[in-house]
Amino acid sequence: MSSLNAQITWLSLQISGSATLLSLLVGIPSGVGLALAKFPGRGLLIALVNTGMGLPPVVVGLFVSIFLWRSGPLGPLGLLYTPTAIVIAQFVIAAPIVVGLTVAAMQQLNPKLRLQLLALGASRWQLLWLLMREARLPLLAAVMAGFGGVISEVGASMMVGGNLLGQTRVLTTATVLETGKGNFDVAIALSLILLALVFGVPYLLTWVQQRGRTS
């Protein structure tokens, strides 16, 4: 692997890893709350989350660009065409996926389990922790889906990052650029690296998931 490809790969991992981590920190608690709480408008909110799971990346890129543009609400921060802008866009893509799958994971638990834990004297935080532990295998699927949804997207990254060499060029945008230039050997090399990441990270998480299933 050339030093340039290694740099692009490392930046891709940093950006998509950060976006995935943020989506987990926000999405898992939000999904647990949506699954367990009862309040007016809950069904509508879940429907919006499910809709958000299919947001086109270019639409996300458009709205994030509007917010980060110089005349936009966050324009003074100067985040457009920076790695942070790509993290924000990828977070918007991944968060609904994590929330939606977390809601589904928690709702699949036996309703009697919650009553049993309460009857045994579990506190609110103990209850949440035990329920999440029980649903840990489906929650790993949320991690895999969130990471897979952002590491392989190109539209939002191109729009908010600008595909600047050494600054915001990631594997997907670099592949598009090299293909447009006719450098198919470089594009194929980048694609193979991307495929290795798309396969490798879920494979590792699947191994953890299956190991947890047998333990």
Q: Can you tell me about this structure?
A:
This protein has 215 residues and is mainly α. The protein has a single domain, classed as MetI-like fold. The chain is built from ten helices and no strands. Helix 2 (42-52) packs across helix 4 (83-107). The two termini are 38 Å apart. The mean pLDDT is 88.
The largest sheet is:
none
Q: Structural class, please?
A: mainly alpha
Number of strands: 0
Structural shape: globular
**Which fold name fills CATH's third level, the topology?**
MetI-like fold
Low-confidence stretches: none
- Provide the CATH superfamily: MetI-like
Beta-strand proportion: under 5%
Mean pLDDT: 88
Helix content: over 70%
N→C terminal distance: 38 Å
